[in-house]
Amino acid sequence: QVQLVESGGGLVQAGGSLRLSCAVSGSIFSIDTMAWYRQAPGKGRELVATITSGGSLNYVDSVKGRFTISRDNAKNTGYLQMSSLEPEDTAVYYCKAIIVRSTPAGERNYQYWGQGTQVTVSS
I need a labelling partner for 107 at 20 to 30 A (CA). Which of 1, 10, 97, 114 fits? Predict the structure, then answer.
């Protein structure tokens, strides 16, 4: 069983910083792409940032220059460093990982989600 456990959310003032963590555990062969999504009240889930196993980075335009996605492969942990936070960043943030697992038919990719962590930015 693969689990993603998020931490680091909380309440912060505008202009402040938070660092989210996503720890992956369980039966895995490797972690392919990791991503962070967010969902604000009354809105759909938005892709915020991705990082591939090779370190290729992508960000939604609204967070470029402020957020940094990273990963520590030795710890099976992903991170989202958020700086210069704005009230518009307020949302539940979710970690997603594409996990490579071994099956009788060979290696297969599976998507796993964390439970979400609340980030609230006050004005």
Answer: 114
